[in-house]
Design goal:
The complex is a heterodimer of chains A (about 170) and B (about 100). With about 170 residues, chain A is mostly helical. Chain A contains 8 helices and no strands. Chain A has a domain of about 100 residues: NADH-ubiquinone/plastoquinone oxidoreductase chain 6, subunit NuoJ (Four Helix Bundle (Hemerythrin (Met), subunit A), Up-down Bundle). In chain A, helix 1 runs antiparallel to helix 2 and helix 2 packs antiparallel against helix 3. With about 100 residues, chain B is an all-alpha fold. Chain B has one domain: Helix Hairpins. The relative contact order of chain B is 0.13. Classes of the chains: A mainly alpha (about 170), B mainly alpha (about 100). Chains A and B meet through helix 1, helix 2, helix 3, helix 5 and helix 6 of A and helix 1, helix 2 and helix 3 of B.
Amino acid sequence: MEAFLFWTCGALMVFGGVMMVLQRSAVVAALWLVFAFIAAAGVFAVLSAPFLAIMQVLVYAGAIMVLFLFVIMMLQGPVMEGERRRMALPLWPGAAIPPLAVLVLVGGWLGRNSAGSFPAAPPAGFGSPGHVAAAMLGRYLLAFELISIVLLVAIIGALSLGHRERNQTWS
Amino acid sequence: MVLTLNHFLALAAVVFVTGMAGFVVRRNAIVMLMCIELMLSAVNIVFAAFARHHGDAGGHVFVLMNFAVAAAEAAIGLAILVEIYRRRRTVDVDELKSLME
């Protein structure tokens, strides 16, 4: 059952990612990315991380992708039309080499280092909200506080970037 | 068939490479940001897989940190793109090369 879920969700996630890359329209690409993220939630479920699966759907497929769709639909015109030109032909090998290199390196490493299977059963309550919260607000409290500063800086940065009157007052 | 850590690492590698190829190939800056999100998602799978492997919630905590980083990155990146669009009326990276010339 776990293996079936893994292969299904993994294949759907890769499929969604590939379709996102191949789509010329930014809106359709964003919708395929939502598809890939929901499949990733299934992969988290296989990894006995139910809280992460829920957060993946709520935060990633929900909040972040809505932000993307909102901006795409706000910037009409060239964004909605998709790319007009293809990439110049001489550039294609250059575009293909880095991803292929990563794939070959990781594939070679995985082929040489065969990790054993997972421990049969995770500890009781593994991946539940309480279990994750105990770690987050215990051992990783400093990281938790730092990430809140990152979010604060992001809010201030987005506000100052989006402030329309700035140019008229400063220059 | 038993799932091993390597299954999840291989899946994450394929997803990461998909996002990487998209980032290199696509010319629309918004789609390039979405490719970055896909790469971050691949990293999340690796975190969760190692958390399951070691039976430790630290990986789950850092997946949540990664969510916050992805949200911050999307907010700032999209704000910059909106500002660029207001000035240049395009988000096509082929036409945004005034720094290069």
